[in-house]
Amino acid sequence: MGFLSDRLARIKPSPTIAMTTRAAELRAQGQDIIGLSAGEPDFDTPSTIRDAAKAAIDAGHTRYTAVDGTPSLKRAICEKFSRENGLDYKPSEISVGTGGKQILFNALLATLNEGDEVIIPAPYWVSYPDMVILAGGTPVIVECGIEDGFRLTAEALEAAITPRTKWLILNSPSNPSGAAYDHDQIKALTDVLLRHPQVWVLADDIYEHLVFDGFEFATPAQVEPKLKDRVLTMNGVSKAYAMTGWRIGYGAAPEALIKAMAMLQSQSTSNPSSIGQYAAEAALNGPQDYIAESRAVFQRRRDLVVAGLNDCPGIDCPTPQGAFYVYPSIRGLIGKTSAAGTAIADDEAFANALLEETGVAVVFGAAFGLSPHFRISYATSDAQLTEAVARIRRFCEGCN
Ligand SMILES: Cc1ncc(COP(=O)(O)O)c(C=O)c1O
């Protein structure tokens, strides 16, 4: 009998780690590597937020707080939901955790029994299936291909629901595809869910503010008020305010679920960092100009990357509505051989060859449950992106 638990054997190490490790090795050998795999904004946290954190330290806000968030941060979150989403929540319906990640984890652990099913549209954020498995549930993956704009359709949702379905995880805008659901597309899904009262929705809205071309963000609890008592709306400050390292995320849900999540948190991590909470409060209550500024930068970069990739033979890159990722298809390259002689059998072979032969690090689509694709994070400088796209084009032109 091994020392490590059986539970651990059921999950896999993050598929992106091998790629990041190899990129670091090549960089250490002096190679010029462009990393396009990071899932975080490349900006610094705005100075008003940093100042609020420093002031919180000086004011002595350095002790334990209430387990799932200070009352004042919870009030700021309620105001955010009211102001930005037209959602009316009480502080007792709010949970603050160490990143949105902990909110998701707590919710799944607090609700799943062995054999309960969780519908996860693919391509998905890498952590969803493993979180479900760790919590004892069964991920039900529904592929949402490029032809559907990487979005779950009402028909596909209906077909995936069984009496054991407990959650649907809906991430809009999506990591890794950047696809976002508009009001009507969400309504089509919530109409299905109204017919299946056993199913709850976990809405991962972490990329809410990164939407382009005037796209109007919508979220299930707002689109279908009749469903609000079985929705957990998850959000956070990581992506909206360039605060990934501060580790503050939050969720809004019916009080009974929020209480259960707080109980779990009280026996694991207790409160998220007190200083992070004060910084998050400043982010939500303070000036919001940063959001529009970063959105404009990301939209420009998205356009640069999409245009450049669509110039590469064998690549088809749809234009995403949001986040800071593109998820191009490489169907046109499968079966070919790179200039250096690597067979492009699948998207993993493509990503490895791209790294070894051109020094561009991307993440292969199989990691996100939908092939043959790859993900680029364009949260890096225009100069790096221009150079990366030029290298990818040369690579594709060399394939035959
Ligand atoms: C889709 C998605 N959800 C949730 C998270 C978690 O963000 P955090 O834990 O930083 O709030 C991430 C981070 O990469 C993400 O991409």
UniProtKB/TrEMBL annotation:
Catalytic reactions of this protein: L-aspartate + 2-oxoglutarate = oxaloacetate + L-glutamate
The keyword Transferase is annotated on this UniProt entry: yes
Cofactor(s) in the UniProt record: pyridoxal 5'-phosphate
Domain Aminotransferase class I/classII large: 32-392
Keywords of the record: Aminotransferase, Pyridoxal phosphate, Transferase
SUPFAM superfamilies: PLP-dependent transferases
Name this protein carries in UniProt: Aminotransferase
Species whose genome carries this gene: Paracoccus caeni
